[in-house]
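Sample intake sheet
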Amino acid sequence: MPLADWFLRHSVTMWVLLQSFVLIAFCFHSATTFPKGCYHAEENGYKTIRCSNAQLVEIPKDIPNDTRKLFLDFNHITFLPHDAFRNLPLLLELDLSHNAITRMEIGAFRGLLENLHSLDLSSNKLVSVNKDVFSNLKAKVNLSSNPWLCDCKLQELIGKVDLMAGSSGGIVCDSSAQEEHVGKPFLQLITDMDFCSVYKRTTDIAMLVTMFGWFAMVISYLVYYVRQNQEDARRHLEYLKSLPSKQRKSEESSTISTVV
């Protein structure tokens, strides 16, 4: 009986220790899978993940899928691949400002279309972006402080997105086909001119010049070909004149049929 009591007491102790080890292991696993340099917070009742200034070079793949606000600002992210945020269907706010983003694939924001209401891409290195990257996106977007190339492509992009209030003045031409546009707010420029119509006229002129060039080459070749054949025929006729009369007549008839 004392042996049974001892075993019972130690069994309970061992069971408690086992539960403690499991709990510690679970917590350790959760901590190690959480993005390095990031921390969890609650802001206005929303689950928030802050990865600001965490030396990130790409979008973390282990952000909890119930995150409502995600801050990835002040990092070294350069590229947003297809489906970069597909596991974050509840995300309301996404801050990607102050990175080095130069390229975004079509579908980078797929999965965020319905819920996302704020997307900050300011202070990156965006020069030109396909308008389809933002297809069906309902969020307010901040595109200010990027080295934009002001052209038809940017005009189409601006027409596609819903710009964040107060951010439109920060979309400034860093480069343009017309030097006088550099340094000017893009939305100010498109009130006076249509970049896409200018692009279309330039394209049409280039096509006309190309077609004229090909036409001129064909005409030149035809002229050369006719002149060359005429010269060969003339030399052959002169040769025939130097031959005896009988041979000349047969050769002349042959030459005339060949020329015809």
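Comment: Residues 35 and 63 are 7 Å apart (CA to CA). The longest strand covers residues 39-43.
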